[in-house]
Amino acid sequence: MDTVVLLSCTGLGLGALYFLVASGLSLIFGLMDVLNFAHGALLSIGAYATWWAGTEAGFSFWLAVPFGTLVGTAAAVMLELFLIRPLYSRPRDQILATVGVGLAVPALLMGIWGADARPFPQPALLAGTWHVLGATVPVNRFVLLAAAALLLLTLRLFLARTRYGLIVRAGVEDRAMVTALGIDVRRAFTLVFAIGGAAAALGGALGGLYFGSVNPGQGTSLLIFAFVVVVMGGMGSVTGAAAASAGVGLVQQFANYYTGTGLGDLSVVVLLAVLLLVRPRGLTGRLA
User: Fold this and answer.
1) For the CA atoms of 39, 41, 44, 49, what is the dihedral angle to 10 degrees?
2) Does residue 54 fall inside a structural domain?
3) Are 34 and 84 a contacting pair, CB within 8 Å?
4) How far is 132 from 115, CA to CA, in rounded Å?
5) Which domain holds residue 204?
6) Which of 2, 41, 108, 189 is 20 to 30 A distant from 50 in Cα terms?
């Protein structure tokens, strides 16, 4: 029983990390129809900015995480303003440009700090364990779950209750009409990129807690699962992305433990294929 509880908590913690990355991708890809293959680079930027602030700059963990998130947010805004915005009507060029950024950022990080993983600083408060139904579970799993739940609530409120959330939803449906009404859709889209970048950077900052280290390829590997989560959850649905993240994390952990290391990734691919055969539009396939 304790093994099942431990695997469940660990799987949900991994799913929470996937959601932190996939939620921003769901907004950018699902709402704005932009295939941002540089999203993993934003995660890496947030992770390394947090690591640098916590080790080189001497920040406490509680200041390093906001710093890393802000750096990732600023990188996302610059990416949208200088690279994506001129290419909104050229999706093929978007893919080439963002793939280039997605390859260049890890190479830059590798050139500056090397290819080896760097130990991630963890405060004593989050380095312990909690006993849950007989299982000893690391505290950082629950930190990831709390962050993911807070992000899900914030995104749902943003899309449903704020002016810019409504503008984004309307702009996706009919951008020309919204622009004709005198509303600057571009500003709203930049805000979406900023939110997506902040979520990815936060995922990178807290991902160091889960893995215990940061490395240049971390964002790229997590981006693959983030795309799987977005497709499974339904384009543009943050609620669907949350449900899919939990499912992917649980399946991966249980499959790795009961079958063999590496088969967890294969099980996720199988799960994606089965879901798309049953529900081609994903779990929800709507904006919510």
Assistant:
1) -100
2) yes
3) yes
4) 37
5) 2-278
6) 189
Q: How far apart are CA 178 and CA 185, in angstroms?
A: 7
The verdict on residue 18 lying in a domain is: yes
Quick check: pTM over 0.70?
yes
How many distinct structural domains can be found in the chain?
A: 1
Distance CA 150, CA 227 (A): 21
Structural domain contains residue 284: no
CA distances from 55 to 49, 59, 107, 117 (A): 10, 7, 21, 14
Q: Are 245 and 256 in contact (CB under 8 A)?
A: no
Q: Is 175 exposed, middle or buried (0-12, 13-18, 19+ CB in 10 A)?
A: middle
**Tens-digit pLDDT string for the chain (288 aa):** 678 888 888 899 999 999 999 988 888 876 677 888 999 999 999 999 999 999 988 898 899 999 999 999 999 999 999 998 888 778 888 889 999 999 999 999 999 999 889 998 888 788 777 877 777 888 888 999 999 999 999 988 888 888 777 777 666 666 666 666 667 677 778 888 899 999 999 999 998 888 889 999 898 889 989 989 988 888 778 888 899 999 999 988 888 888 866 677 788 888 888 888 888 777 775 544
Q: In 3-state terms, what secondary structure has residue 214?
A: strand
Count other C-beta atoms under 10 Å from residue 259's C-beta.
12
| Residue (of 220, 189, 192, 226) closest to 47 by Cα position | 220
